[in-house]
Hints:
- The complex is a heterodimer.
- Chain A is α/β, with parallel strands linked by helices.
- Chain A is built from nine helices and ten strands.
- The longest helix of chain A is centred in the last third of the chain and has 22 residues, at 249-270.
- The termini of chain A are far apart.
- In chain A, 46% of the residues are buried.
- By secondary structure, chain B is α/β, with parallel strands linked by helices.
- Chain B contains eight helices and ten strands.
- In chain B, helix 1 links the parallel strand 1 and strand 2.
- In chain B, helix 3 (88-97) runs antiparallel to helix 4.
- Chain B is globular.
- Chains A and B meet through helix 5 of A and helix 3, strand 8 and helix 4 of B.
Amino acid sequence: MANASPYSDLPAEAFWRSGVVGQKPEAIPGLYRPKFAIDRGTQIATAGSCFAQHIARHLQARRYSVIDAEPAPPGLTGEAAQRFGYGLYSARYGNIYTARQLRQLAGEAFDRFEPKDWIWEKDGRHYDALRPSVEPNGFGDPALVEQHRKYHLRRVAHVLRAADLFVFTLGLTEAWTHRESETVYPTAPGTIVGRYDPDVHAFRNFAFRDVYDDMKAFFRIAKRGNEKLKFLLTVSPVPLTATASGQHVLAATAYSKSVLRAVAGQLAQENDDVDYFPSYEIIAGAQAKGAFYEDDLRRVRAEGVAAAMDTFLSAHETGAAPSQAPAPQPALKSENAICEDILLDAFAR
Amino acid sequence: MTRVCLIGDSHLAALKLAWNTLVQEFPDFTLDFFAAPGKTLDGLSVSDGQLVPGSHPLAGSLKLTSGGKSTIAGDYDRYVIHGLELGVPAALEISRKYRAERHAKDWRTPISDDCYAEAVRGAARATLAGRTLVKLRAITTAPIFVCPTPMADARNQKIRQAMVETGEARDVVRLFVEGCERLARASEARFLSQPDETLEADGIGTKASLSSAPARFHAELAAKNDNSHMNTAYGEAVLRKALMAAA
């Protein structure tokens, strides 16, 4: 005999009222059901937009095995180390905001992809435009930028070969590219270093298909030398600082996050070795009523990061008491991550 | 009388022995020494305006070396912190694994000049001397002088030789001294570098003559081939510099 409704046997979490309304926003039951186990022996690599820095830091604080293929020299600690891009991710790639940037990096490390126009100059100093923030004062000689990038790419290759799990936080769909070669940059030319030239540089706002294809291409490249590698995707809940899309920044943010969320969901549905962790929903969801954002409605409060990470860790640590977790290193100011896009505020009218 | 409190590790022994001869030279000073081996001074904590030991062994060391006091009072006129990991070896460790832009290309990890400088300067911060200085400043407003661990003597150091030839050695020492000065300034203290007359010409080694028959609080602990602890002559040079600064 047929049920009265296909919804009648569904669990409480399937309904907004019982699954969301009335639940504690920092601990919504059933929101994250891991597809695969992660334990302290799992070799974890992290990358992504600035929100991903929190993930690495919290995992390290809980003594998970987070790969650090480019450790800071002894003596360089705390904020000084972070200023040089150490300890933020598994290698010194800085923030990787777009899927295209990630694909490009893996392509450089493994596929002989050669970016174009990637050494930028400012005041006689030379910078790696693909990670401009990791050397705040650049180098005196462009040859040194090349030398350092070669070393970095070897370490990136090591990360991808050594990892069991690659955690990537998708941040943006908007990016600036080298018009001719389509080399994609993490920051707009002229924001930190370099100079914007409309004949040379072009704006791109990647669509679903672009992001999806880029992620699939990245998976292929990364798994070529490491078949066991699994992927955990998250979407950054941090809104855009600015948009060059011509849309209102609120609409542009909604577009960007929607595309990224849809791609992450699609990839997790299609692939056994890809999972999605809903940090975006925990922090930006209606149930949080904006409480996890600072007054600028952009930066994520420490409570928001903690809520997301507690959800993640408690799902992987049966019987764990999140409140007993050691506090992560307080090296970052508040829960601010190092985000180049904040610099765009300087250009805000 | 100016009352001076000297705090340090095994390297303080050379100053203690030197005081026996320098006492005539500085008749207006009275000195109390507080020493404990290795990292044990990390067990000091601030309590009621004093530094108090957190363990019986540390209390015992302080009593033994000071002549009966197991706590460090905050009412001295001057303080000297000596050694406590504040030595060039920590900075040289960075050079062993990392090279800066201006260094010759080799197997070491390349880092920028800025990063290298920041790391070498930072090596001073992560020392027992740095931690002790912060605690000490919490109990006193008196002048504090910070003296480094002596550089190892010049024997048997191939790596040192290579660094001297490439010019890296002076670079490291200069940056490290800057780091020590920065560390001291942060606590309104003054860094006193190793006296020039105790150094080899290359600037990163102590004259071998100053490490023969090194001073140790416990003679039985004196290790063979000890080229890091210095003798009374070295202690005289350092203590004289410290007391002249404190005068």
